Amino acid sequence: MDLDTLVRGGAGRGDYSHLLPFAWMLPTYYAAPAGKVIPSSGAPLLQLPDPDLQARAQRLLNVLYWTAQRHANLDGMVDEQTLKVFLAPEFLFRKGAQAATAATDAGFGAYPESLRHELAGALYSAINGTPLFKNWLLVAGSLCASLTQRRGLLNSILVLRGQRAQMDASPPYVLLEKLYRPRLDDAAAARLADADQSLASRYALDPEQSLDNLIRWDGMMLGVELGLDHGQQTLRNDMNYLGRVLGPEVPGLDLQLIASCGTSIIDPSCAVRGGGLVVLADGQHTASQASIEPRFQIGRHDAQRGVLVPLPSSDIVFSELPRGDDYQIDYMRGRYAQLGRRQGVWSCKAKIPLQA
């Protein structure tokens, strides 16, 4: 995308004044089996060529429909000026180690590269075909895919829009690539990393990507990051670069969304304008942190002090998902549940202003 399109493009209405965030609390640090998942909560049946991917995508759709129904009476749900955002954690789509085969997988539980677009198309059809998700934005975590031409891994964020009263000219969904990619050039190490993502510890910046995490939609400037990219201040660096090139013409970032597995919001990485919102859904839960559930964070950027001010915990509510494969994963062979850890959806109790 060229700079002119990024800054001035998208003839969106730009009339969202409030946000209603939802974040799926789901541990994704260790690979987990896909399970047997059927459509639930009124979600349509997805059809994908890979059974493992289909099960995980169907569960996402079930949780999304469950969330919309469970919170149907929240302030802002039917408000045309409130953007509903559903944010899933990083590594949501990563094969369990037992599902990987040497013939099809490059390590780290990766799917074939072509399945990224099939998944995005199927999810978009499912949410765009119903007014239930009008004025929604779905950040469907990330999908790990193997590069076909060279050894390596793509970690792609899927970002999709539901229905709008009037769609702008921008694409209805996008795939954004993680800028800092794991290097999996050792086959044995790659297979070990299928089960434990911390073993893929060598990362390199892709020099071909620039400004790839910025989206101009609905008259807004959105920034979407994965965890390591947030730690490396990719969005903050992008906004600083735009400021140097375009000067006062560059718009501020209206909303920053982070799908993470092991990262918290970092003050120097906040890229939104002063008073803007930063939201993070995390997927980390490790054996060494058995007492800690994955994080949900939301706050406003205080530009003068350079810090994020968290929203009061009294403004946030957690709803536990129904048990069983249709809504939850069997994490750490049942140990996660035995420890009393939950899987569910975080939300605010009511819509909140996008800008303070």
Helices and strands, in order, run as HEHEEHEEEEHEEEHHEEEEEHEE
Beta-strand portion reads: 25-35%
What is the fourth-level CATH superfamily? Carbon-nitrogen hydrolase
- C-alpha Rg, in Å? 19 Å
Q: Would you report the number of β strands?
A: 17
CATH class: Alpha Beta
Morphology: globular
As for the number of domains, it is 1
Profile the largest sheet: 9 strands, mixed
**Uncertain spans:** 8-13, 99-106
Number of helices: 7
Mean pLDDT across the residues is 86
Question: Structural class of the helix and strand makeup?
Answer: alpha/beta
Oligomeric composition of the shown chains: single chain
Name given to the CATH architecture: 4-Layer Sandwich
Helix content: 10-25%
How would you describe what is shown here?
The protein has 7 helices and 17 strands. It is α/β, with parallel strands linked by helices. It has one domain (15-353): Carbon-nitrogen hydrolase (Nitrilase/N-carbamoyl-D-aminoacid amidohydrolase). The strands form 3 sheets. Strands 1, 2, 3, 4, 5, 6, 15, 16 and 17 form a 9-stranded mixed β-sheet that branches. Strand 13 (296-302) and strand 14 form a beta hairpin. The protein is globular.
